[in-house]
Amino acid sequence: MTLRDRNRTADETGSLGCQVVVVSASKEEHVNVSFRSKKLLVAAGAGALTATLLGGAALAAFAPVTYDPVSAVEAQLGTAAPANSGTDKLKAILDALVAKGVITAAQEDAVIAAIRDAEPKRDGDLKRIFGGLFEESAKYLGTTTADLKTKLPGTSLGAIADKTAGKSRAGLVADLQSTVNAAIEKLVDANKITKEQGEKAKAEAPGHIAKFVDHVYEHRTPKVTEFVGDLFGAARDYLGISQADLAKALREGKSLGDIANATAGKSKDGLVAQLTASANAKIDKAKTDGKITADQATAFKAQVGAAVTALVDRKGPTAIFKR
Length: 323
Fold this sequence. Notes:
Blueprint: E1 2-8, E2 16-23, E3 28-35, H1 38-54, H2 69-77, H3 86-99, H4 105-118, H5 124-131, H6 133-141, H7 145-151, H8 157-163, H9 169-189, H10 195-214, H11 231-239, H12 243-251, H13 256-261, H14 268-288, H15 294-313, H16 318-321
Helix pairs in contact: 3-4, 5-9, 6-9, 8-9, 9-10, 14-15
């Protein structure tokens, strides 16, 4: 089902005219409808969308997505550098021109040198140096990058360092500064950056490092419903019915619990039990993977039964849109 905006009137009520196109497996019907309220049109649009989704495989798209703090940390790091800088790519092109005799090696060197002189300090190799700060931080703290990422939500690298035996924020900063300076010197020695660029990068490094070490990573406590997963897919599999039959029953205003009780050999309690067991398994895995703490896992397991029951009892649009 789709809503196609047909006419917009300019009266004081803000009424809207539209054509509703009803699509079924056998035919397409056009029905002209006039809405005297924009709110009614919005509500009708939501209902139309609900009916469309209930009629297709898109139900699974509304399954809760489990919050992954590691992915959230990775998104905030933002320090990954490109595999090749623009200068590297240009050099490959110029090498080919030299090989063909189009330009000389001296001309190529002059072009590369001019570009490197004008190249921003964080491009290419310099960017890769700062991109390695997180890995170096993990080494200093005596842990792996994977483990460190699980500890970061809600805190900073500096705070973690201060709580680590024999380590400190000041020590972490000093270690990172030493690593960055050594890497910059290597670039200068290899003529990948000029001495002036190197000195400027060293001078600005403390500011970048301090900001990196003191950044507090976002922390969000996941909702218990995020561990339920594909609610409709799991219900369909448990009930042993087709997507079309499940969609039809939901369109008729039944809840998943109602459908289960009306299915031979099945029940609402059985559906709740299966969904709860599946959610508990996901909670255990999240704890094992370090995505949630043991205390959080215990709390979620205490909530999951009631949360699943509430989802199974919902009827109408809220059965899909509310989580």
